[in-house]
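can u do me a favor
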């Protein structure tokens, strides 16, 4: 934990919109697991109206408060996309 004059919850997550399937496909690859048993499927927004299909979050507040860069799934670990 860090000391700061902030109380509350900070939500963090990816900026870009991405499906759960593509997120986990990339994540499995990053940690060295085979993803051949991961299969996509469709969920109707009408059948599941309360299911969250958007995995993106605005991380500007967390980035500012924590002085931290939150990388995207496509970026190599520890390297900002603009530094490539």
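np, heres the sequence
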């Amino acid at each position: 934990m860090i000391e700061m004059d902030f109380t509350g919850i900070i939500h963090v997550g990816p900026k870009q919109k991405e499906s759960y399937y593509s997120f986990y496909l990339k994540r499995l690859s990053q940690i060295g697991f085979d993803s051949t048993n991961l299969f996509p499927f469709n969920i109707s927004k009408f059948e599941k109206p309360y299911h969250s299909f958007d995995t993106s979050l605005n991380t500007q507040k967390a980035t500012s408060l924590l002085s931290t860069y939150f990388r995207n799934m496509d970026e190599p670990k520890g390297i900002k996309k603009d530094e490539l």
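Helices lie at 20-30, 60-66. hope that helps!!
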